Amino acid sequence: MRFDPEPISHGQSGKTAVLLINLGTPDEPRPAAVRRYLREFLSDPRVVEIPPLIWQPLLRLVILPFRSRQSAQKYATVWTREGSPLKVNTEHQTTALRNLLHANDYDVIVDYAMRYGNPSIPDRIRALRQSGVERILLLPLYPQYSSSTTATATDAVYRVLARLRNQPDVRTVRDYHDHPAYIEALRQQVEGYWLQHGRPDFAAGERLLLSFHGVPRRTLDLGDPYHDQCVKTARLLAAALGLDETTCRLTFQSRFGKAEWLQPYTAPTLEELGRGGTPRVDVFCPGFTSDCLETLEEINMEGRHAYLSAGGKAFHFIPCLNGASAWITALGEIAARNLQGWPVLSPEGQADAAAAAAASTRARQVAAVAAFDEANAAANPGARA
Description:
alpha/beta; Ferrochelatase_AS; iron
């Protein structure tokens, strides 16, 4: 086995990088590009757990020829001048996190990669190594852990590492589904939308749906924590908004195939609420940190149509976190916590940290002396005279 060439550092101190990882997107909204993307995505054994000898002929001969054309049409409805919404939002988050960390004296490289499509994980890892990076913090943009998202992203990283002669030090953020800063960012996103568009009248039967990406039901039975983490995120967000399980409902979207997936399903729930006379429904997708096909087309277009066609009156789609300042702050907190112990501060930051540590030590010493004097005085009251 040949190993990839390595940069020669000659004892120089290596750099540290934070690598954001997202799902991925086709390069353009055309059938050929979508087919390439879907072939890579749906060939991942963590995404489709069907033996390849059975699955691959079905994928290549039946699914890809038809689904690629249909998906390309859907992508075209959400594509922007800058490109795919998922890629554009991820790029903006990367830039914002880089600026935030640098403003706080972190001397780190901040980059991003896509699990499927471009820029690929192998390309970005190799580019970071060529630039002298010796420490990488992997920060998947999936708040809730799942084998089909977080695990397959780290698998891809480790496959690259297997080809490196001089491997970097690597840390992985597993999940942050209940991180206080993440929950606060979600709360601010919802409350900010309501401030502009009015808060639903929950007493009159209006509702908020929290729609998470679905996965097959069997993954829960096999030990994947994704379902439970979604439930906890929804519970914490509902509490932060002052809502209960009646006014704020959890659902799962994006079913594929005939097998049972996590329930309740989003689309049938919207139809049920429309038929039941629910005057307004707001839908928010806490598990998606960037708006993408699944939120912009599946929820804001297909979901809206399902609800209104069933008799609903007012449908509100609350955008994902995208580049919200509270979300970038949360990303910064998550990154900073996981960077601890690595030499990541700039010279100015190191000086400030040393000064703060010295001041803290002095404060503790003064407090200890004061406490000793107070205890000694209490034990010897006559000594005061």
